[in-house]
Design a protein that fits this description.
Radius of gyration: 19 Å
Order of helices and strands: HHHH
Number of domains: 1
Number of helices: 4
Strand content: under 5%
Largest sheet: none
Shape: elongated
Helix content: over 70%
Number of strands: 0
Distance between the termini: 44 Å
């Protein structure tokens, strides 16, 4: 399945999950945009189904926490890559 279709399907599922808790479709759409990826939306749906939050603030707070975790993961991967390149430089020197 191509990424756009996967994103659209995950977005619709997230909107439906948020709607089932009594919140607006617009909240679901905005949360989906904030999360940005189908995997993040799946994590959010897991939270919604397990915790059944009773306020929009709790939903937004969890979405922000997921975004924060994703950003920390990206920073960690970038740091690991930079460290690997630095180690290569130390071990092999500059290429001429």
């Amino acid at each position: 399945m191509d990424y756009r279709k996967q994103w659209a399907r995950s977005c619709e599922e997230l909107v439906q999950a948020i709607r089932s808790l009594g919140f607006s479709d617009e909240l679901g759409v905005q949360i989906a945009k904030m999360l940005g990826s189908p995997k993040a939306m799946q994590r959010m749906m897991g939270y919604l189904y397990n915790e059944k939050p009773n306020s929009a603030e709790l939903i937004v707070d969890e979405a922000l926490a997921i975004c924060s975790e994703i950003e920390l993961w990206r920073e960690k991967k970038a740091s690991e890559e930079a460290n690997a390149r630095y180690n290569e430089l130390l071990n092999y020197g500059f290429e001429e």
